[in-house]
Design a protein that fits this description.
Layout (H helix, E strand, L loop, with lengths): L2 E6 L6 H14 L3 E4 L16 H11 L4 E4 L10 H14 L4 E5 L4 H4 L9 H18 L5 E4 L4 E5 L11 E4 L3 H10 L2 E4 L4 H12 L4 E8 L4 H11 L7 H6 L3 H11 L9 E2 L3 H13 L4 E6 L4 H18 L8
Parallel strand pairs: 1-2, 1-11, 2-3, 3-4, 4-7, 7-8, 8-9, 9-10, 9-11
Antiparallel strand pairs: 5-6
């Protein structure tokens, strides 16, 4: 059995809409939500990027059962890990037993805004490991000081803590980062179905820990309409590697998209109204070792997708016994 989740795209939607989508997603049967944590959208036309911790407070008030996590927060430059520790503890107290903290090394797009130099990926991984250490120590609820390689904390204590501390999951796109996730976190988050990531994660000590994978989808009345929606709202799907992590502004991403010409839609993006490709994509992630799978509906029609999930996709998943009945 797998657990199904729904992605809240902060880059595409206003804060009150994200809160409403979270409530609808819980109502139709999703078990968990991941919300992106950005300072900027990927391209200007997406048009949004609200402060995630404010939105999470709203989500806490309109949901009762669904688990919610950041997908993902970078605690290395833009926000000091001590502040992330406090923010996450507060949200976890607002939704007892339902919050998880997703962390990663981030992108220059969001992390350069305070003027600091952008470190190499190896340094960012070291910073992430130290940040996780700071967060976990502060979650003990005792006065804490830290003088590390990258961070200093002086006489800090978090007073508002949940009865149950949230798990920390770490995002990975390559085998080295998957190994780091196994060492420092309680679970893996990935945006690709690569089975080698799961294998590296498990071999490095992650066996038995949750493994989250994302499927990009675009439900629409026709496949052609879905293709046009992806090209308009998420034209950066084919931008990867160093470009993805090192470009500084939405305009730079737009320049790359324009230079590419016709936007390229990755083959694993699921398009249109037929539930069968959605089912096959979920099965692929499951076969590759992911036990939590979340769907990112691209574009403005979130309500249409959620109705499709409830009325067409969910019954098919139940029939194939991929999820429990009435998830």
């Amino acid at each position: 059995m797998i657990t199904l989740g729904y992605a809240l795209s902060s880059e595409e939607h206003k804060p009150n809409d994200l809160i409403a989508h979270a409530q609808m997603a819980e109502r139709v049967g999703f078990k968990f939500l991941l919300i992106s944590d950005h300072f900027h959208p990927w391209v200007p036309r997406q048009g949004n990027s609200p402060f995630v911790w404010s939105v999470l407070g709203g989500i806490a008030q309109v949901t009762q059962r669904v688990s919610v996590g950041t997908g993902v927060t970078a605690p290395i430059m833009r926000i000091h890990p001590a502040i992330i520790a406090q923010a996450a503890a507060t949200v976890a107290d607002m939704m007892p037993g339902r919050f998880f903290l997703g962390l990663g090394t981030g992108e220059y797009l969001n992390e350069h805004i305070l003027g600091e130099a952008w470190p190499r990926i190896e340094v960012r991984q070291e910073m992430l490991a130290e940040a996780v250490q700071v967060i976990r120590e502060l979650w003990k609820g005792e006065e804490y000081s830290h003088h590390g390689t990258y961070y200093t904390v002086r006489d800090a204590r978090i007073y508002t803590l949940p009865e149950k501390l949230p798990p920390i999951f770490v995002a990975a796109s390559g085998t080295e980062s998957a190994e780091l996730a196994a060492e420092i976190s309680d679970g893996l988050i990935s945006t690709t179905p690569k089975d080698e990531l799961v294998e590296a994660f498990e071999n490095a000590g992650g066996s038995g820990k949750p493994r989250y994978g994302m499927v990009k989808v675009c439900w629409a009345m026709t496949r052609e309409e879905a293709k046009e929606t992806v090209k308009h709202w998420w034209p950066t799907s084919a931008v990867s590697g160093v470009l993805h992590s090192d470009l500084p502004t939405p305009k730079h991403f737009q320049d790359v998209v324009d230079a590419m010409g016709e936007p390229i839609i990755p083959e694993d993006t699921i398009l249109g109204p037929n539930p069968t490709p959605y089912l096959k994509a979920i099965q692929t992630y499951r076969e590759n070792g992911f036990d939590h799978i979340y769907l990112h509906q691209i574009g403005p029609d979130q309500e249409g997708f959620l109705k499709f999930f409830k009325n067409e996709l969910l019954p098919l998943l139940e029939k194939e016994e991929l999820v429990k009945e009435k998830i």
